[in-house]
Amino acid sequence: MSVDDLIAEWALATGPSDRLRDNENLIRFLGEWLFSEYQPYPEKADFWDRLYCWLNQICDCKTRNEDQRAMFDFIPYLLFAGQRDLTAMYRAAYDGPIRRWLIDQGELLLDDLAVARKLENLRRDTWFGSLAGMDISGFSRVNRITGQSYRPEFRFIAEFCNMNELKNWLDAEGYKRIVVVEDMVGTGEQFQDALPALAGVGGENPIQVLFVPLFIPPAGLKVVLDELSKPEHSHISCQPICVLPDSSIIYGESQSAESKDHSRFREVILRHGSGNFGYGSNYGTLILSYMNCPDNVPAIIHQPADVALFPRATREE
Q1: How confident is the model at residue 91 (pLDDT cuts 50, 70, 90)?
Q2: N- or C-end of the chain: fewer Cβ atoms within 10 A?
């Protein structure tokens, strides 16, 4: 059998519909021109074949047709960031909140004839890093951030580095501020893991820190802002690029304004996904990129690898 056979079966059971035909055309297009960019496991099957394996894992229950159709109809809600999309987000982050922050840090006047040179000097005095392993090298290439030998991951620094030595090293290298970028933030737990490193450059004569998440759900942003409201974190600020709308989140409990597709997919997760909506939380985000699928996406989408729609390359076993 194939996805085409399943679609024919659904149409026979419920009658042909514009919705089914439109979703089929859209998913075929996305599979060929966008989802095909997905990098993990280069030996993986083409998307249309992976789609069949993903749907066909639901094959021995009374609600088979209903559940498979709910999974199929939910695919257009996935927010898949391709290579060009992430490149655009990298540029938006630097040209938007990071550049504005640097202008504020340097108290620059936009009518100053030397503003471009002064802004470049501020950039050179700024240490750019990731929160928990984002492609900070790619971010730096896109935005022409040069002259920086080390591009840190601050979660690693929080685990293994002496904060006093870090501050001394920053002073010796001439860094006066820090920008931390991360592409996908879910629950905010990784931010909390990295926070000791960012807090460690505070205190007397603090180094100012800007945290820029590219994608973050409202609940994750609340965790971040609650931490930053503490007096000892007053030197850290956060300016996200995209706060995910509810349409890009699946909650463990019914929401008054959610779509019927979200409700149907929730039932699939409860029946077949062990109730795993996202890593350590009662909600899952629906954002992934061509580089990987975050673990705060519902597990049924990325596990197990042999039937997953987007098999995740994990860091921990």
Answers
A1: very high
A2: C
